[in-house]
Amino acid sequence: MGKTGFSLVLALALVTLSTSSQEKCILSGTWRNELGSNMTISAVNEAGQFSGLYHTDVSTTGKQILVSPMKGSQQVDNQEQPIFGFTVTWLVSDSTTVFVGQCFVDDQGKETLQTMWLLREKVKSAEDNWKATTVGTNVFTRIK
Ligand code: BTN
Predict the structure, then answer these.
(1) For the whole prediction, is pTM greater than 0.85?
(2) Residue 117 has pLDDT above 60, yes or no
(3) What is the pLDDT of residues 23-36, one digit of tens each?
(4) Ligand 1 neighbours by CB, cut-off 6 Å
């Protein structure tokens, strides 16, 4: 192989190495969002399912905020930046929040969970259904 051929092979190897070395975004761990809420996600099983605990720092009820259980799942099979969803069933109120999002990892290996949520609150009757659901976004960063 000539000098040019060798340089080409080397360049190709370097490009392959740099593009395939993106870190995996892992959901397990403890995360905090911009509202100051924390959540801890347990190990994700082979089917992509996980459970955890969510401690919200804000609430619509004004009641004392307790830790509530959450359950979710993520896309599996070699996903570097997986999509996921989870549900929090609030213990302090009759409400439930569903989150959907994606786990991103940047060039420095910093992970963020970019999410969108729907919070469903209980209303007295079907006439009040129009005001029962709110929508928002949260960005989580890893704290553990
Ligand atoms: C309630 O107020 O009925 C229960 C607590 C809801 C907390 C919401 S869920 C979406 C948003 N993100 C948070 O971390 N907390 C609020």
Answers:
(1) yes
(2) yes
(3) 999 999 999 999 99
(4) 33, 35, 37, 56, 58-61, 90, 93, 95, 97, 117, 119, 121, 136, 138
Model pLDDT, residue 80? 97
> Which residue has the CA at smallest separation from atom 13 of ligand 1?
56
Residues 44, 74 contacting (CB under 8 angstroms): yes
User: What's at 29, amino acid-wise?
Assistant: G
Tokens matching residue 111:
């992970």
Task: Enumerate the β-bridge partners of residue 52.
Answer: 41, 70
Point out which residues pair with 99 in neighbouring strands.
Answer: 86, 117
